[in-house]
Amino acid sequence: MIPIAKSAEVDEEVFEKVVAQAFSKKRKTLKNNFKDILNPEILEWNGLPPEDRPEQIPVASYVRLANAVSKMQGRS
Known about the structure:
Blueprint: H1 12-22, H2 30-34, H3 40-45, H4 59-72
């Protein structure tokens, strides 16, 4: 049997906004998609290479970024 993974704790509203922003512009890098709202260093601090495209990023990395954004907004 394969154990069921525990779901990650994340503010779903923030997570949805982060993922929507990441995929907001086709064929662009994370740095370009987040340039108006996040410093590229924040992406790097959360394990997201700014030069990568959104489809290259695992879900767990988006969860980590959403949690960081939540903390920046004082939501957690």
